[in-house]
Amino acid sequence: MNKNKEDTILKNLSGLNRKELKIAMEDMEVPEKQINMRVNQVWNWLYAKGAKTIEEMTDLSKDFRSEFKNKYNLDRPKISKHEVSSDGTQKWLIRFPDKSEIETVFIPDDSRGTLCVSSQVGCTLNCTFCYTGTQRLVRNLTSQEIVNQLLIAKDSLKEWNKPQRDITNIVMMGMGEPLYNFENVRDGINVFSDDAGLSISKRRITLSTSGIVPRIEDAGNEIGSMLAISLHATNNDLRDELVPINKKYPIENLLDACRNYPRVKNSKRITFEYVMLKGINDSEAEARDLIKLISGIPSKINLIPFNPWPGSKYECSEWDQIEKFSDIINRGGYASPIRIPRGRDISAACGQLKSDTKKEKASIKYKKELAKLESERIRPL
Ligand code: SAH
Ligand code: SF4
What we know:
Layout: E1 11-12, H1 18-27, H2 35-48, H3 62-71, E2 72-73, E3 78-84, E4 90-95, E5 101-108, E6 113-116, E7 120-121, E8 139-140, H4 143-156, E9 169-172, H5 182-193, E10 205-209, H6 213-222, E11 226-230, H7 236-242, H8 251-259, H9 262-265, E12 270-276, H10 284-293, E13 299-305, H11 319-331, H12 360-375
Parallel strand pairs: 1-2, 6-9, 9-10, 10-11, 11-12, 12-13
Antiparallel strand pairs: 3-4, 4-5, 5-6, 7-8
Helix pairs in contact: 1-2, 4-5, 6-8, 10-11
Bound molecules: S-adenosyl-L-homocysteine and iron/sulfur cluster (SF4).
């Protein structure tokens, strides 16, 4: 008798990498010689065509499809909330079966569309200016969960059938420290960049790290994406305070790792991120120190106006001061774009990501407090 489908827990193929799909094919008892072919077929459906059901995979025989359906599905993780900002930024709160949640953010621009992907639920690193670091529950995402963030965004933007892509770039700058989840981030990025599927070139994928020095070399060898470093200070005393992992991996070691990053040796630029904190790290002397510090490293410096969150002990630098800081760096020969915060009305800007649906009430209070903080800012951005 046919077993009722609801009785069986179906395994999920959505977001799997090639190695995992191969295991699924072995599980389906596909003969050894045909496994690679079957993996390629399924890959094409999943990542080039965006199939949502096994039924759509019409180049698999009908019999195989019906057996396949009895064991597997292509379901995405649940979207528990989808918000669209007045500036076009979109944020998806994604809930996994263990009830943990992460956020993925899409930032459209004139010339590109960037998807900001999370690597962990929360973050263990407690940088003092970052809201994500205050979240208690932390776990690594699987590579499947990392890949599903892009699939969900493509579904939601209805991108699969469009002649032009909405999502042209990926930044691993959502929740979490990607180099603390090295293998899964590596495997996820390899799915993103695979030419036969999602096909987002590694030149368009940027991994941002707070500076896990020994893993930067591994990232150069095994991932090969663009690199961004959350620097935020020009001396160890201050960086120890802002980015506490600096006590373990101080600035000198971090910059050595940057100099040795393979792409840098090929004159590709590293991005240094520098959050602008009023009266803390935004003096003109620090701008000059910054130029000295990075001398010889092909780089650009992204100045990020601090995004406030309730309870944070910092303020964003005055706009004039950010411009002065930027001018000094420009004159020193480095591009230093000021990153205009996006999606603030939906708390999607850098360092504002924190998931906790249990605290809906707290979140309403948070939004009110945030609006108050915003209205007190010197210049609306
Ligand atoms: N954990 C990684 C990647 C995620 S954070 C890292 O730290 O690099 C993405 C960027 O946002 C980092 O440069 C981080 O320092 C910055 N950021 C965190 N909180 C912020 C805030 N409140 N305002 C502005 N930028 C912030
Ligand atoms: Fe973690 Fe990055 Fe936030 Fe630091 S800035 S707490 S490393 S997410």
